[in-house]
TrEMBL record:
Extent of Polar residues compositional bias: 1-10
Domain of life: Bacteria
Organism, scientific name: Hasllibacter halocynthiae
Molecular function per GO: oxidoreductase activity, acting on CH-OH group of donors
Record's keyword terms, sorted: Oxidoreductase
Protein name per the record: NAD(P)-dependent dehydrogenase (Short-subunit alcohol dehydrogenase family)
Region described as Disordered: spans on this chain: 1-47
Lineage: Bacteria, Pseudomonadati, Pseudomonadota, Alphaproteobacteria, Rhodobacterales
Length: 297
């Protein structure tokens, strides 16, 4: 297994005051436009925790999804990345997985809120790699709805389709291919537990993701398939400049206990725990990388 000395050295994460004002007009937004760039890089050499496994990661082009794809590749997995339309970010993720981590990466663009696209993402993964062992449902969209009464039906439906239906459709398509020992990991949010007055619709979709994870865990435990969730707090990803006005992005993460935003690599380790045999006695559970916010389990 290749060594990765360039990405195993300690690096100080940016503080909240290191985040300047910035905003983007797209959702999902672009990682390559962010300042400072999110830190996706794993901190430790791989030991083969996912050797021979195949992982499909939705929203894997950037942010938490990119960090998870790179970490899984380092641990021996072959990677399929499903994403909406952020081709430049997706190509960079593929480059990192293949050139820096020595694995394989399949890119699958498309809106997973459309069932046929979700089905195609799974079918292309299995066709390319011959199996599917880990499904990470991570792709999502988010908009502020500070004036909930004025939020458009279009945006409500867009978040529901992306954040709920996409997870349901992709999991449906994956089930025939998942065997005993497989793992499904769903991204939920601290907002599913704590609520957020500015993200009412988004928080609602993440609450649905949490309920979906717990229910699927009970449904699949007899088949030896584990289903768990990760509930990130304020993480420096394209979600932030894509959601918030520039003046609110400045100093992002300063109000949490650790006084800074989390970086994507710090969240990816939770997905690796659930995906690997390290998490073999966990199903229906949630990990909370959120910088110190105490919420219900």
């Amino acid at each position: 297994m290749a060594e990765h000395s360039s990405t195993t050295q300690p690096r100080t994460p940016p503080k909240a005051e290191d985040i300047p004002p910035q905003s983007q007009d797209s959702m999902p937004a672009n990682e390559y436009e962010m300042d400072p760039p999110p830190d996706y890089a794993p901190r430790h050499p791989g030991v083969g925790k996912l050797k021979g496994k195949v992982a499909l990661i939705t929203g894997g082009d950037s942010g938490i999804g990119r960090a998870t794809a790179v970490l899984f590749a380092r641990e021996g997995a072959r990677i399929a990345v499903a994403y909406l339309e952020e081709d430049r970010d997706a190509e960079e993720t593929r480059r990192i997985v293949e050139e820096e981590e020595g694995s394989e990466c399949l890119l699958i663009p498309g809106d997973l809120g459309v069932k046929e696209n979700a089905t195609r993402a799974v079918e292309e993964t299995v066709s390319r790699f011959g199996a599917l062992d880990v499904l990470v449902n991570n792709g999502a969209q988010q908009w502020l709805d500070q004036d909930f009464g004025a939020l458009s039906e279009e945006r409500m439906r867009r978040m529901i389709e992306s954040n709920i239906m996409g997870y349901l459709f992709t999991t449906q398509a994956a089930l025939p291919h998942l065997k005993e020992g497989a793992s499904i990991i769903n991204t939920t949010s601290i907002n599913a537990f704590a609520g957020n007055a500015s993200l009412i619709t988004y928080s609602t979709t993440r609450g649905a993701t949490l309920a979906f994870s717990r229910s699927m865990a009970k449904a699949l435990v007899g088949k030896g398939i584990r289903v768990n969730a990760v509930a990130p707090g304020p993480i420096w990803t394209p979600f932030i400049p894509g959601t918030m006005p520039a003046e609110e992005v400045e100093g992002f993460g300063g109000d949490v206990a650790m006084g800074r935003p989390g970086q994507p690599w710090e969240v990816a380790t939770a997905y690796l725990f659930f995906a690997s045999s390290d998490g073999s006695y966990y199903t229906g559970q949630t990990l909370h990388p959120n910088g110190g916010e105490i919420v219900g389990a």
